[in-house]
Amino acid sequence: MNHRSGYVAIIGQPNVGKSTLLNRMVGQKVSITSRRPQTTRQRVIGIVTAPDAQFVFVDTPGFQTRHGGTLNRIMNRSVTRSIADVDAVLWVVAAPRLDASDREVQGLISAEVPLVVAVNKVDAVGNKNELLPLLGEIHELAQPKAIVPVSARSGLGVDDLLAALREHLPERERLYGEDEITTASERMLAAELIREKLFRSLGEELPYAAIVEIEKFELEGGLRRIHAGILVDKAGHKGIVIGKGGAKLKEISTQARMDMEKLFGGKVYLEVWVKVKSGWADDLGILKRLGIE
Ligand SMILES: Nc1nc2c(ncn2[C@@H]2O[C@H](COP(=O)(O)OP(=O)(O)OP(=O)(O)O)[C@@H](O)[C@H]2O)c(=O)[nH]1
Ligand SMILES: [Mg+2]
After folding, report:
1. CB 19 within 8 A of CB 195
2. CB within 5 A of ion ligand 2: which residues?
3. Binning pLDDT at 50, 70 and 90, where does residue 148 land?
4. pLDDT tens for residues 12-69?
5. Which domains, from first to last, does the chain contain?
6. 46: Cβ below 6 Å to ligand 1?
7. DSSP secondary structure of 105-136
8. Considering only CA atoms, which residue is closest to atom 27 of ligand 1?
């Protein structure tokens, strides 16, 4: 059979499960996820290699219009840029219905690029007949090449989704090596995994006010020695991240270390500090240094 490969942008409003779906397809956590909206802050590449196809997925921040600010502007720009230069677009929506934000995302999609829609979270829908009006509405609104119900959480429908996408990739050789799963550096992945734990273990507003910076990343034989700083926006936030007797910070760094060991396939020694750096979310210098641009 002929070989196909290409770039596929994954877009959708915040929290529909774009990154969970990417990780499910790749089989590793290359993009962080949480139950909060706006977990993904920058583009993340995840590569899926099959015998007859290679998919280079570009995960993007959930597109949103409610909040202003430099970080949000950059995040939205990253979405519109990602859509511009790909072979296909994968629009992810969450069952059981579309809302105004989904429609806004749909409005960004160019009619010239093949579009496939993943209707995610179907595991949460009891009666699958409930999906029919949604499928009809998507069809009418976007006229996609295919609409595939999936559950990123259970893996249901994911093979069908890849098969549907494959049809719309150009015939060509692989773009990356067959065992490459991302273009992100280990340094960047390490920072992201720490940020994921912040999103998963802190209260409402705090994770949004934090950023992670890797200060040292050394490889000694099979051991990775990593020093990371969590930058918080306000002095009062520092104590919350550290927790009583350091318990919260310990939980965050232990879980991040375990994920890193799994992803990097080797032992990790991780030290994490918390620092106060006000105004980082509007500081272009910091955002650039962290690769968010
Ligand atoms: N029930 C169910 N929940 C899911 C599924 N896929 C993702 N989720 C949950 O939805 C939430 C958001 O998932 P993410 O993958 O972080 O969503 P996202 O679209 O990448 O979000 P942003 O990066 O913030 O735009 C998490 O709590 C996931 O566990 C699914 O198939 N079924
Ligand atoms: Mg995401």
Report:
1. no
2. 18-19, 39-40
3. very high
4. 999 999 999 999 999 999 999 999 988 998 899 999 999 999 999 999 998 876 666 7
5. 4-166 (3.40.50.300), 186-289 (3.30.300.20)
6. no
7. HHTTS-TTS-EEEEEE-GGG-SSGGGGHHHHH
8. 35
